[in-house]
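The records we work with from here on pair a chain with its fold. Taken together, the tokens spell out the fold as the letters spell out the chain. The record below shows the convention in full.
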Amino acid sequence: MKHILSGILFLFVLYAHQVNAEKFPSGSVASEPVIFQYAVYLINNHNGNHTAKAKELLKKSYPFFTLAEEPNPMVPSIRISLNNKVQTEYAPPSLESLQYFGMGVTKEQAQMLQSATRALVVDFSLPLEHRVKGLKEASQFIYDLALQTGGILWDEETRQCFGNSTWEEVR
């Protein structure tokens, strides 16, 4: 009797393993390129060609990425654009929202953010095999860009704003 029960249990475990193997194939669960967007809200009234400065920073310090008109999921690539209609097309978070999702954003910065009119919007695309290095490089690039412009960082995926020191700590 003991052998029969052991045999039934073995068959049950074997069947359960086969069912799970069919539902959950082996290998990586990630199969798509990584595509995401960060932005820097330009809260200071510094005029100048921020897009050109961003492209210069990319070329000088971030050769890992290719500058592209459209992000290319086959290579680590970036598209940099300047949105001059922030209040209507890329509105910053409200003061109330910033209370919950403004990480390290001062009250003064939050107030300035409400009247921001421009933002540098950066789209990133990474092939799956470059996702770890690419995410680190993208985080450092957007941080350097925010320092260069005096702007406030925005993570489109998490819908959070960051002060520079907080971004550096958590990213």
The chain has a mean pLDDT of 87. Residues 2-23 form the longest helix (22 residues). The radius of gyration is 23 Å.
